[in-house]
Structure formats: structure tokens, C-alpha cells
Amino acid sequence: MLKEKSKLSIAAAELLQDQEYYPSSVHCSYFSCFQLLKFSLSDFFGLSEADFSAIEREAKQKAKDLGREWREGSHQFLINYVIKEIEKNYNSDISGDISDRINLLKKYRVESDYMAIPIDINKSKKAYYMAKQIHEDLKEILHV
User: Fold this and answer.
1) Under CATH, which number does the domain 2-47+73-142 receive?
2) Model pLDDT for residues 5-34, shown as the tens digit of each residue
3) Cβ–Cβ contacts within 10 Å for residue 68, how many?
4) Model confidence, pTM
């Protein structure tokens, strides 16, 4: 289901861009990647939602036990988890590239959704092409 939603989201990003709805296009570009990352948890890593929630709870508890404030949101935790797994099992160059792209895309999504700044065609196109590259990389590495 999430893989199909991801495909719909990237298609929507392109359509919204064509209609000059640039902030919404950026939003869809980001979520297409997030949905694909989330899909990879079960499809590639064999983790159920419950399994991954338990991993996240354990990480939060570990931070608390160490007296650290938990600052990582659920999106960032999932992104970091997948990136670390790619780095461990493949190579750090590709994981670094994906990490840089998804984090910049996330920044653009926050700007487009929550900030009173203009989102123009250039940022929308950059977000879309970064998302397409992330899709290609994840397909090659994780076969999603």
C-alpha cells in the first residue's frame, strides 16, 4: 500500500508543479520518499510497524536513561534508521548521498508547509528531481 501511495505522491508532485502549485508539489515530493522509506522497513528489512515502533521506543528510553533529551522526530528517526542500515550493508557514499538529499528535501517540505516564504518553480523542480533520484537509489539498493 505505501509503495503505491509513494508512486501516487510523486505523480501528484509533477502534476502540481505543472499547475504551478509549487508548495504542494514540494510536499508531495517529500512524502513520496518518506512513504517509500517506510515501505522499505517491511519489504526489505522485514520489520512490522510494531517492530519499528519498539525500536524507536527503545532508542527514546536509552536517551532518557543517559540523561539526554530526545530531539529526533518520528520522520527523522525513520530516515536515520534506513540510512544507517544502507551504510552498514552497502556503502557510505550512496548512504551519504541519499541522506543529503532526503534531509534537504525535508527542509524544503518544512519551508513549503510551515514557513511564510515563497516556494518558486526552481525549488519545486529541485525537490522533484531530488525525490526522483532518491526513488532510483532506493530501488537499486533496496529493490523497492
Assistant:
1) 1.20.120
2) 999 999 999 999 999 999 999 999 999 999
3) 10
4) 0.92
